[in-house]
Amino acid sequence: MNRARAAARVRIRRYGPPDGRARGADDRVAGEEPLELRYRVGDAWEPLVVTMRTPGADFELAAGFLLAEGIVRERRDLPGMAYCVDVDEDQHYNVVNVDLGPGARLPAAHELRRFAATSACGVCGKGQLEALSMAGCASVPPIAPVNASLIASLPERMRERQDLFERTGGLHAAALFGADGALLALREDVGRHNALDKLLGWAFLEGRVPVHGALVCVSGRASFELAQKCVAAGVGLLAAVSAPSSLAVDVARRFGLTLAGFVRAGRFNVYAGAERVVDDVTSTSDADRSRP
Description:
Elements: H1 3-6, E1 7-15, E2 22-30, E3 33-41, E4 44-53, H2 58-68, E5 80-83, E6 95-99, H3 130-134, E7 146-147, H4 148-159, H5 163-168, E8 172-177, E9 183-189, H6 192-205, E10 215-218, H7 224-233, E11 237-240, H8 246-255, E12 258-264, E13 267-272, E14 277-278, H9 284-290
Parallel strand pairs: 3-6, 7-14, 10-11, 11-12
Antiparallel strand pairs: 1-2, 3-4, 5-6, 8-9, 8-10, 12-13
Helix pairs in contact: 2-6, 2-7, 6-7, 7-8
């Protein structure tokens, strides 16, 4: 990752203790630049999507987006990616050309209009659950029961590894954990959708998709798009620090994704797949009653 682009140093005026007066200070903010994905049509490259993102892990972001949208399903569907050099030099790393294999599902012309993304809202325009089924998404295979204490610990485990957040305080994160709670990978971005695309793109490029039995934790809320991406990659459980949307709950319930929200301060709510969460706290009175 080009850290000079991922985080920028700025001069600020800071207000606060001890006297509330303004003081000059240096600070770091998360970098944000556009990324355009292009795909080949004959001998020409056609634009597919433009998204705002934090520079870094761009190929993973591209792969994760293509996977979530059902354009690629297997590693051979994406034989190559490269930065575009046919643009201004300062934009070389803001345009990625993706080679799609014969098995890739090329979007129809009328579908391309919905591929417009920002770091704030993600890829929008899929307001119906049927879109997931039409894209070939299947129900997530059942996962082994997960201890409640493990779910409650995921945000803190993720937070401990957020290097860019430590430097900027302005990034979302998505982390992939094994069934035992071991951290497998973590990605950060100014956009929460981008962070998850980068994470699942890493898994795809590493040959780990579908990631059956794995757990994903995200630093923000759980929206339809985030639930969709998890289903597309075969994730078993999605834990969000903030609230889920109603459509995210619908997606989780329809496709067998265990969904936990408001996972913070040792508490959380389960909105789908509660049968896969094990209450591992037994009160003393219950234990006493169970004694002969």
